[in-house]
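Entry 12.
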Amino acid sequence: MNAENLSQNEPELLRVAEAARLLALSRTKVYEMAERDEIPVLRIGTAVRIPRRKLIEWIEAQTTGGRL
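Predicted 3D structure (tokens):
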């Protein structure tokens, strides 16, 4: 998965629940990460949205290549 291969039909901004599914994490954990600025976040009023491209880039940057 990379930012260049995003489908035209997928929303650019994800709700927290959608990002949580993509990351295989709970909504609570994603909110915590957003609050600590650990993941890219866009705040529109009280709404929290996660830019899909930035999240995928973040995932790629965090990937260690299999080391635990």
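Annotation: Helices lie at 16-23, 27-35, 52-62. Strands lie at 13-14, 42-44, 47-51.
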